[in-house]
């Protein structure tokens, strides 16, 4: 209640008000108890947008028509002593300006107990209101971003990251769009590739989903967490519509433009977009949408497209800004996830390379050992040659010149043994010569064929020829070609030497993705099986020194190349001898 | 009959070759060192030289070069325990390269061939 202590008439009251309140920065107005405006100061007039110089008194309804704060409806109550208080009351004033004001209105008593009218104090709080709204919006978007960031930080899986981002765009607790689509840039094909979509495919689906979500009463963080834990597949129809869809970037579409310009675009119908954009808009099923580029540190990663196609609700400018801010923050998560995928890929490549390097190093070490052994054996062999020449030479000379006397038997033995020793030296020198050849890729079947030809050239005319049935070509092995040739030849030679003509020796080759294999098999009558078994035991456990050394050298050569040999099919009718080598996987070539 | 020079640092080997070649009807001289061999090549009229390659400090291939410098038409047969020198082009100046063996027949056969030419 506002009172004056002395009687004042209407005209002087207005003058009194003007004198005291006319220049106040606060707005004041006074209506008499008949609802006629008797006073409004300059500030009050500015707030309401009132032209003070306009002729004629204004009625309460005139003002109410502008400020819409219930003055006319509550006029009687205010006159009766109630007050009207409104904070941040918003309206558009007579001049079309948006205003937020605080208003305090109470009854005015001219003389004791006599109500003369209502008096109002108004304060323009438009600026602070706008700041407050802005702050609230910022807080809101930060809250959404924070919750989404927390969710994406708990996963590096790109699909999860994209899904969480789009839930943030579409959830009521998030940005509140009906639908959201995410495209990522495919640099190899210079296009935008559809990766993820979230939202109902139809109004019916929307009703079902949104009501289910609303009943959960969950915060955005809870919603996102629920998705990550349960890994729900979402809404397949919308997602399948977009997945793998490619929008070329070299076409003049609104989407390419948004990406190239790095700016959000609010599409309001087809009139303002190029015709090249229409097919994509048809496929999206919307003419009104927001397209926000996803850019991280200047890298154009993709686009988020959001619309309200289900509800048809107009997309406000504030929502457009929110989406761009959100897209900017999401870019980091998208980039991190893509980098994580690349890191995983590289880690796997590195692990594979490390494994191959380890294998290669092992092989190099073995090869080096073989080379050293080769050098050593070569030196020893050569040193032995001179003494053997002398011993055998004298024995032979005595035998041929008749100087043997009664010692010819012993001299024959001496000569035969020196011949045997020289044979061993010859084989060892063959091996050491082979050690000097650099390692390379070798076609296994071809190498086996050459060893077979070598075998045939060494065989006596009377010996039964073995058969060679090569498998398909294409099995590449890595190693010293001369050493391996020598080894394969030795296996074949020992087998043929120990086998009688009752047995037919058959040499075959085969390979799978890991191993190339040579098999020396036998065919013949049943009773020859015993002989085959004896042959194989002689090859591996020969009592004669020469063969044992050849077997040792050949076997060691195979093992040093990462291979293996042995007898298989012992339970079968005719066991066979096999030699296998690892298939070359493309390891670095060391010589 | 031919006059044969055996150059080898192995005494027993020189003895063996001397015995075998003498029995085969040849006149045999021998040298244990390169110096000795060069002196004999210079002073004697030889029909063929049997030359070892690895003789301690003496390099048989260098010696071959010096023999050929002194007497280009003198046939030299390299006789070594090592077969690796076969690939060395310096050995191409020699008439042949025979690896040492207790079976001396190939060496004898070659000597007779060379001498007969």
Principal-axes geometry of chain A comes out as rod-shaped
Give the oligomer, counting copies of the same chain as homo and different chains as hetero.
heterodimer
SSE class of chain B? alpha/beta
- Average per-residue pLDDT of chain A, rounded, comes to 83
Mean pLDDT of chain B: 91
Low-confidence stretches of chain B: none
Layout of strands and helices, then pairs:
The complex is a heterodimer of chains A (591) and B (117).
Chain A: E1 2-3, H1 10-21, E2 27-32, E3 37-40, H2 42-48, H3 60-67, H4 75-79, E4 84-92, E5 98-111, E6 114-124, H5 126-153, H6 158-170, E7 179-186, E8 191-198, H7 203-216, H8 220-230, H9 236-242, E9 246-248, H10 254-261, E10 265-268, H11 278-284, E11 288-296, E12 299-307, H12 317-400, H13 408-434, E13 440-443, H14 444-458, E14 467-469, E15 476-479, H15 481-498, E16 504-511, E17 515-523, H16 529-540, H17 545-560, E18 564-568, E19 576-582
Parallel strand pairs in A: 1-5, 14-16
Antiparallel strand pairs in A: 2-3, 2-6, 4-5, 5-6, 7-8, 7-12, 8-9, 10-11, 11-12, 13-15, 16-17, 17-19, 18-19
Chain B: E1 3-7, H1 11-23, E2 27-31, H2 34-43, E3 48-51, E4 54-55, E5 58-59, H3 60-70, E6 76-80, E7 96-99, H4 105-116
Parallel strand pairs in B: 1-2, 1-3, 3-6, 6-7
Antiparallel strand pairs in B: 4-5
Helix pairs in contact in B: 2-3
């Amino acid at each position: 209640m506002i009172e004056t202590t002395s009687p004042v008439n209407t005209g002087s009251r207005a003058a009194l008000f003007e004198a005291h309140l006319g220049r106040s920065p606060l707005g004041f107005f006074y209506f008499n108890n008949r609802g006629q405006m008797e006073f409004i100061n300059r500030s009050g007039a500015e707030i309401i947008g009132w032209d003070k110089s306009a002729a004629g008194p204004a009625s309460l309804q005139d003002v109410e028509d502008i400020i819409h704060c219930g003055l006319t409806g509550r006029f009687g109550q205010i006159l009766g002593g109630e007050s009207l208080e409104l904070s941040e009351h918003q309206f558009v004033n007579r001049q079309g300006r948006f205003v937020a004001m605080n208003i305090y209105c109470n009854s005015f008593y001219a003389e004791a107990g006599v109500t003369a009218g209502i008096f109002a104090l108004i304060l323009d709080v438009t600026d602070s209101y706008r700041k407050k709204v802005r702050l609230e919006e910022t807080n809101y978007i930060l809250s959404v971003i924070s919750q989404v960031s927390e969710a994406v930080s708990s996963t590096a899986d790109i699909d999860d990251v994209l899904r969480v981002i789009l839930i943030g765009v579409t959830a009521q607790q998030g940005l509140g769009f009906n639908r959201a689509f995410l495209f990522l840039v495919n640099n190899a094909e210079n296009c935008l590739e559809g990766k993820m979509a979230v939202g109902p495919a139809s109004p019916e689906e929307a009703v079902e989903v949104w009501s289910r979500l609303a009943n959960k009463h969950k915060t955005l963080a809870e919603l996102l967490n629920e998705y990550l834990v349960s890994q729900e597949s979402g809404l397949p129809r919308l997602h399948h519509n977009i997945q793998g869809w490619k929008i070329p970037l070299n076409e003049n579409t609104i989407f390419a433009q948004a990406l190239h310009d790095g700016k959000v675009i609010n599409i309001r119908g087809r009139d303002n977009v190029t015709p090249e954009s229409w097919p994509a808009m048809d496929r999206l099923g919307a003419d009104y949408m927001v397209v926000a580029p996803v850019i991280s540190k200047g890298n154009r990663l993709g686009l988020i497209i959001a619309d309200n196609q289900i509800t048809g609700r107009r997309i406000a400018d504030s929502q457009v800004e929110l989406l761009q801010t959100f897209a900017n923050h999401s870019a980091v998560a998208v980039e991190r996830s893509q980098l994580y995928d690349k890191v995983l890929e590289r880690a796997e490549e590195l692990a594979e390379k490390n494994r191959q390097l380890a294998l290669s190093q092992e092989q190099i070490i073995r090869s080096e050992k073989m080379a050293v052994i080769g050098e050593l054996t070569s030196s020893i062999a050569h040193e032995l040659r001179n003494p053997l020449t002398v011993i055998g030479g004298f024995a032979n000379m005595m035998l041929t010149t008749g100087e043997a006397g009664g010692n010819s038997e012993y001299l024959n033995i001496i000569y035969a043994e020196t011949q045997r020793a020289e044979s061993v030296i010859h084989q060892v020198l063959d091996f050491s010569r082979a050690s000097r050849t650099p390692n390379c890729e070798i076609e296994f079947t071809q190498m086996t064929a050459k060893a077979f030809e070598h075998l045939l050239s060494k065989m006596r005319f009377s010996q039964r020829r073995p058969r060679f049935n090569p498998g398909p070509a294409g099995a590449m092995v890595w190693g010293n070609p001369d050493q391996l040739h020598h080894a394969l030849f030795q296996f074949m030679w020992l087998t043929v030497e120990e086998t009688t003509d009752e047995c037919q020796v058959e040499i075959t080759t085969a390979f799978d993705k890991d191993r190339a294999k040579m098999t020396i098999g036998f065919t013949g009558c049943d009773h020859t099986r015993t002989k085959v078994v004896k042959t194989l035991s002689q090859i591996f456990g020969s009592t004669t020194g020469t063969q044992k050394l050849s077997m040792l050298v050949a076997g060691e050569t195979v093992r040093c190349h990462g291979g293996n040999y042995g007898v298989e099919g012992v339970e079968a009718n005719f066991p066979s001898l096999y030699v296998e080598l690892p298939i070359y996987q493309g390891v670095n070539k060391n010589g | 009959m031919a006059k044969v020079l055996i150059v080898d640092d192995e005494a027993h080997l020189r003895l063996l070759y001397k015995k075998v070649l003498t029995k085969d009807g040849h006149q045999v001289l021998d040298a244990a060192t390169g110096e000795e061999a060069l002196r004999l090549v210079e002073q004697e009229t030889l029909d063929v030289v049997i030359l070892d390659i690895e003789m301690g400090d003496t390099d048989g291939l260098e010696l071959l070069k010096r023999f050929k410098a002194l007497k280009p038409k003198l046939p030299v047969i390299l006789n070594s325990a090592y077969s690796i020198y076969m690939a060395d082009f310096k050995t191409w100046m020699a008439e042949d390269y025979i690896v040492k063996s207790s079976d001396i027949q190939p060496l004898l056969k070659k000597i007779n061939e060379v001498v007969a030419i």
